[in-house]
Amino acid sequence: MTTSKVDRLTVEELRYRLKAAQVVVAAQESDAEYDALMAEMIDAERRAAAVPAIRKAREELGTQDIAFKVVETARGIVSVKRANPLLYRHFVYAGKFTTNAFEKLVTPTIFYPSKEAAAEIFEDVPHALVQCADAVAELAGVRAKQIAPKS
Q: What CATH number is associated with residue 106?
């Protein structure tokens, strides 16, 4: 019976390769943990930076979710106040829900940050404009619960 020589690793070689693979996996896990912690820190700092703006909105406008809404985006918050009723009616009756229409509705209602900074957020996070338009609509009563008198 003939046996062919099979390349066989020694126990030491197996341990070395195992350790090398574990180092690669640990580095990847470390990178993932770092990324997760970085994202969490950035989110916490963004929320902390928004606290004074929310306080100012409460002082100047009134109750949150009644007089103003806070929209959280990946680039920070955008605070919108109630729209002028005529502007809101014009938006609704026009029936054109385009980006331009959303901008015309939302821009005058921006309380925080500046309109320029909000425009940059909308450029980087396009859905934020839609979220702000939705918040303005909520302030106008779109999702208000109907209170029906009991009969």
A: 3.30.2220
Mean pLDDT across the chain, nearest whole number? 86
Q: pTM score, two decimals?
A: 0.70
**Cα 25 vs. chain centroid, distance in angstroms?**
31
- Alpha carbons within 13 angstroms on the beta-carbon side of residue 58 total 8
Other beta carbons less than 10 A from residue 113's beta carbon: 19
Closest by alpha carbon to 135, among 82, 58, 74, 59?
82
| Domain extent at residue 80 | 32-139
Cβ neighbours for 103, distance < 8 A, ≥ 6 positions apart: 122, 129
Predicted confidence at residue 29, as pLDDT, reads 81
Count how many domains the chain has. 1
- 130 is a domain residue: yes
Whether residue 19 is contained in a domain is answered as no
